[in-house]
Design brief:
By secondary structure, the chain is α/β, with parallel strands linked by helices. The protein has two domains: 150 residues, HAD superfamily/HAD-like (Rossmann fold, 3-Layer(aba) Sandwich); 68 residues. 37% of the residues lie in helices and 13% in strands. It contains eight helices and eight strands; from the N terminus they run ββαααβαβαβαβαβαβ. The strands form two sheets. A six-stranded parallel beta sheet has the order 5-4-1-6-7-8. It has a two-stranded antiparallel ribbon with strand order 2-3. Helix 3 packs parallel to helix 5 and helix 6 packs across helix 7. It is globular and about 50 Å long. The two termini are 18 Å apart. The protein binds magnesium ion (MG). Magnesium ion binds next to loops.
């Protein structure tokens, strides 16, 4: 199937050395590679109750495109509280424990084409992959392990490090040597926030409509490319 491309950019022919042709792909997790059937929100709510004592089902807050630290700050603001560093640390420790307990293999669903897409990236010696996710590093590890997706959680930037996704993208790119180190940098994600983060760091964006945002909305964000599912681009032709 042909992907629904929006604002397509013509691929340019490279006449550079192999090192300059390297591509960096920064990958989101939730809504892009997998879904967790609400286990993340449950873990958040239980940890909020355990650490701060607030009964809150968190149904009022959208998790899509947010970072875990950003969510925590938002929840605390709503309850009129400024968390201490210790409380933040306690929250993440508890939230990850609750997530591990709740996230059975049955609750994790790998999204269409995600395995094939990742396998394709792995086969490409000119492509490097790092994570750019709103999940805490521990949360990312738990989700990827349960989904049996082989991605390195030592590489990338994570939602317990910074609250702002665009700044998180900058951190991930800095850790990978910066924009000029790469022939092309792609951010792959399922929300307008992923596309905005890509723009903020001068990267291209592949938006995939397997999360909560339909393809028409993602196209409207000015994504370099938007597709219904990763299986539409599993041949990785867009990287050329
Ligand atoms: Mg996402």
């Amino acid at each position: 199937m042909e992907p629904d491309a929006c604002l397509p950019r013509a691929a340019s022919v490279m006449s550079t050395t192999p090192a300059e042709r390297d591509v960096l792909v920064l990958l989101d997790i939730d809504g892009t590679l997998l879904t967790t059937d609400g286990a993340g929100r449950e873990a958040f709510a239980v940890a909020i109750r355990a650490v701060f004592g607030w009964e809150d089902d968190l149904e009022w807050v959208s998790f899509a495109g947010a970072t875990d630290l950003g969510l925590l700050h938002r929840i605390c603001r709503r309850h009129g509280w400024r968390p201490t560093r210790l409380e933040v640390a306690m929250f993440f420790e508890r939230m990850e424990r609750e997530l591990a307990a709740r996230l059975t293999r049955r609750r994790v669903r790998v999204l269409p084409g995600a395995r094939r897409f990742l396998a394709g990236l792995r086969r490409r010696s000119d492509v490097a992959v790092a994570l750019l996710t709103g999940n805490s590093r521990g949360g990312a590890r738990i989700k990827l392990e349960r989904a049996a997706l082989d991605l390195d959680v030592r590489r990338g930037a994570f939602g317990d490090e910074l609250a702002n996704r665009a700044r998180l993208a900058r951190m991930a790119l800095r850790r990978e040597g910066g924009l000029r180190r790469w022939r092309a940098v792609w951010v792959v994600g399922d929300t307008p926030a992923d596309v905005a983060a890509a723009k903020a760091i001068g990267a291209r964006s592949l938006a995939v409509a397997t999360g909560h945002h339909p393809i028409a909305e993602l196209c409207g964000t000015g994504a370099t490319l938007a597709v219904d599912r990763l299986s539409d681009v599993a041949d990785l032709a867009f990287l050329e």
